[in-house]
Every structure is written in structure tokens, then in C-alpha cells.
Design goal:
This protein has 453 residues and is mainly alpha-helical. Among the domains are: 69 residues; 220 residues, no CATH class. The protein contains 23 helices and no strands. The longest helix has 33 residues. The chain is globular and about 70 Å long.
Length: 453
């Protein structure tokens, strides 16, 4: 315990020291160089484990405020928004889903509907992981549906996993990741990119859903060929049906009502609509706490606040780069290169670089770092907003190999189901498949989407 406390204290000390030193150093630099320095600090915060998660979330906005790079009203506008509000609400519901026994109900329903056919049951769990990830974040979906799906092939920690168990784990992570990209509120990655590109919730769904479903199906096929899972009929009798309690039914009703009202208010262009879209999800936590018997503090404790902070930090950083002219400087630097190297090759090189980068940095960290740069290179690279969104959201979510690259992978590795050497042959094939789908999106679907909007 003492070692853990010392490690935490050291990280706090390092984080505070870095923040203080960076503030003093940036204060001595010209404005445009300050913006570039803040970008470098963001890379340090989001790409390494040296800075504590909480500090990494607040450091960029805090320094920008202290140095006068942004107004407090801008930071407040980014932090208090309808999307952030429903994002937090999704974490709360995911917490209740486990605590109130809704997971068991879903598991029994899927197994009974599949009628003892494991392939169909696994497809059901994967579909639910995809759909739920559009509402409660991909990390929560993996944590919810991975153990439920693994009931098809029970695994004991520390033993050698079977090909079927490996396939189940990979498929659930893939399903949750693709579902998360499909919706603005499904992952921090989507939140950041949608915020940078200012694409609305419904337009984002129309743009991403065809591509994510395609990559989901292709990825499932690739994983099946790599692991060659052997399905066997369920020998044990099917579990008895589970009836939802009155309390569970009301929790589901509150969740559905809040989402519908939030969507109606979010689509409204009036100021009252934005206000209600912010307030409704947060106020709904109170009846959920009463229905579940949980304390509000515990419900809010289930929220991944550092992930929320990274999103806000990325949007603040984007505003800083724009206000200080760093974006124009990047575009001017790249302009001579575009006269020598064909633009399609530059775009392809940038996409491949992002896809490689995301293996070493989390998906959200990747788009937080690359997002402002790609966004403000739109003009010299002749990119449309839809193409920027596809490059960042999909390219930045192709972390299929390392455990550090995404929380979904971390859950899979920590469970002991797969090892790093087993993920290598799958990861490279998945990246090639993802590259093909992304290129189809850039060359085919993005122009159609842009023409319709």
C-alpha cells in the first residue's frame, strides 16, 4: 500500500512540476510559438503515462487560461454542452446496468432466443455490444458484454484460452469499437472528432454507420479465419427465463425517456433546447439513484472523468491553434510539399501514420493530438469535412495489437484470454482491412455524403 501511495504522490508531483515549468516557459515565447508549445505539451500528456490522467485532462485548458490564450467562456462552452451531458449519463447507466442485474437478464434472453446455437448467441451479444456502444461508450460496452458472451465458452483465468474464447473476446472488442465510432456519444474519439468538425449527431450517424458496419463484418470474418473457432452445441439445459423487476423496468424507462427527450432538445435550434439538453441527463441521475438505491456520488464515480477531460482539452487546444495562427503556419509549411508530392499520396501517408500512431497512444489521445493538425490542413490537402472525420475517427480507432492502445484491448489482455504474440497476426490483417474500408469511404462514400449535405 505504501508503494502505491508513493507512486501516486510521485505522479502528482511530476504532473504539477511539468505544468508549472510549461507555463513559465510558454510565457516567455511569442504567441504562435506558444501554440506550438502547447501542442507539444498535449502530445506529452496524452501519449505517455508520465502525467496523471486527471492532470492530463485539465492541464491544457488550465495553461491556456493562465496565459490568456482563450477566454474562460470558451472553455466553459466546451465543457458544459449537450453532448458532454449525455456522455456522462451513458456512463451512469452502464454502471447501473451491472449493479441492478440487467446484465443477467440480457444474458438469459440472448441464450434462450438463440435456442442453444452458440453462433447465433454470439452474434446476439456482438450486436448488443455494437448497439449499446452507440449510447454508453465502447469501454463500458466491452466491460458489460465481454463476460456475458464468454458464458458461451467459460474461461478460467491463468489457463490457455481456446480459439473460441479468443474469438469471442476479439469480436466483442471489435463490436464495441465500431459501435462507438458510429455515434458521437459512443466514444471519446467520436466526441473529439465531431466537436472539431462540427458535424451534428444525426449527420455523424449517416456518415459513419455504413463504414463501421462494413468494417465490423469484415473484421469478424478476418478474426474467424485467424482463430478458427470451433462452435459446439450448448449441452447444458437453457437457463430459466428471468423477469424484470418493477425497479429494473423503471430504470430502463427513465433511460429511454431521457434519451428521446435529449434528442428532441438537441435537434432544436432554440436556446432553451440547448439548455434542456444539458440539464435533462444530469437531472435524471437523481431518479436513477432513487430507483436503484445507489448514492448519487457512487453513480458519478462510475464516470470516466479523465476521458471527458481529454475531449474538452482537445477542443480547447483546437481553438488555441486557430486563434494563434498555428494552423495557418502548418498549412503554409505543407504548401510547397503539395507542389512536389501528389496530394493523394500525402493524404494516404497521413492516414497510415495515424493508423500506426494509435497503437502506441489511446484512440482518444491520437485524435486529440492529430485532430487540430488535420483539420487545419484541409485546404492544402483539398479535404472535405467528411473526409477529415473519416481519417481521424476511423483511422484513429484501428488499434488492434497493443494493450495500451485502447481500453477495450486492455480489458481483453487483463482477462488473460489473448497474448500479444497472438494478436500480431490478427492486428496486421485487421489494419489492412480497415485501410481498405477507409479508402472506400474517402473515395466513394464521403463525396456522396457531402453532396447530400
Amino acid at each position: 500500500m505504501l508503494v502505491c501511495e508513493n507512486t501516486v504522490d510521485q505522479r502528482h508531483l511530476i504532473s504539477l512540476s511539468v505544468a508549472a515549468a510549461a507555463t513559465l516557459l510558454l510565457a516567455l515565447l511569442p504567441p504562435m510559438v506558444q501554440g506550438a508549445g502547447l501542442l507539444a505539451l498535449a502530445i506529452l500528456c496524452w501519449a505517455t503515462g508520465w502525467i496523471g490522467p486527471a492532470y492530463a485532462a485539465v492541464m491544457i485548458p488550465a495553461i491556456a487560461l493562465v496565459l490568456g490564450m482563450v477566454e474562460p467562456s470558451l472553455v466553459l462552452d466546451k465543457a458544459v454542452s449537450p453532448v458532454i451531458s449525455v456522455f456522462v449519463f451513458g456512463f451512469v447507466f452502464a454502471y447501473l446496468f451491472h449493479r441492478c442485474g440487467l446484465g443477467r437478464w440480457v444474458q438469459v434472453k440472448v441464450l434462450r432466443l438463440a435456442g442453444g446455437r452458440p453462433q447465433l448467441a454470439l452474434a446476439g451479444f456482438a450486436t448488443l455490444a455494437f448497439l449499446s456502444s452507440m449510447l454508453v461508450t465502447n469501454v463500458a460496452s466491452v466491460a458489460l458484454f465481454f463476460p456475458l458472451a464468454l458464458s458461451l465458452a467459460p474461461y478460467q483465468y491463468g489457463t490457455q484460452a481456446s480459439p473460441l474464447q479468443k474469438y469471442i473476446g476479439v469480436l466483442i472488442v471489435l463490436s464495441a469499437t465500431m459501435g462507438g465510432i458510429s455515434s458521437i456519444i459512443g466514444s471519446t474519439t467520436s466526441l473529439i472528432v465531431a466537436g472539431l468538425t462540427e458535424i451534428s449527431l444525426l449527420d455523424w450517424l449517416k456518415l459513419m454507420l455504413p463504414l463501421t458496419i462494413t468494417l465490423w463484418l469484415v473484421g469478424a470474418t478476418v478474426a474467424a479465419r485467424v482463430f478458427s473457432p470451433q462452435f459446439e452445441p450448448v449441452s447444458a439445459s437453457l437457463p430459466g427465463d428471468v423477469i424484470l423487476s418493477v425497479r429494473q423496468r423503471w430504470i430502463l424507462r427513465v433511460f429511454a425517456i431521457v434519451l428521446l427527450l435529449w434528442l428532441y432538445c438537441y435537434r432544436s435550434e432554440a436556446e432553451w433546447g440547448r439548455t434542456l439538453a444539458i440539464a435533462l441527463p444530469m437531472l435524471a441521475i437523481l431518479p436513477l439513484a432513487w430507483l436503484s438505491g445507489e448514492r448519487v456520488r457512487d453513480l458519478l464515480g462510475g464516470v470516466q472523468w479523465p476521458a471527458v477531460g481529454v475531449f474538452v482539452s482537445a477542443l480547447v487546444l483546437s481553438a488555441v491553434l486557430k486563434n494563434l495562427g498555428v494552423a495557418c503556419g502548418l498549412g503554409a509549411t505543407l504548401q510547397p510539399i503539395t507542389e512536389v508530392v501528389p496530394i493523394p499520396l500525402l493524404v494516404l501517408g497521413m492516414l497510415v501514420t495515424i493508423m500506426a500512431f494509435t497503437e502506441f497512444v489511446t484512440n482518444s489521445g491520437t485524435v486529440a493530438i492529430w485532430g487540430p493538425m488535420v483539420l487545419y490542413l484541409m485546404v492544402p490537402l483539398e479535404l472535405e469535412m467528411a473526409e477529415v472525420a473519416i481519417i481521424l475517427a476511423m483511422g484513429g480507432s484501428t488499434a488492434y495489437i497493443l494493450p495500451s492502445s485502447t481500453p477495450g484491448n486492455a480489458v481483453l489482455y487483463s482477462a488473460g484470454v489473448v497474448q500479444r504474440q497472438e494478436m500480431l497476426p490478427l492486428g496486421y490483417r485487421m489494419k489492412l482491412a480497415a485501410l481498405g474500408v477507409i479508402l472506400i469511404g474517402l473515395l466513394g462514400w464521403a463525396p456522396i455524403w457531402s453532396a447530400l449535405h
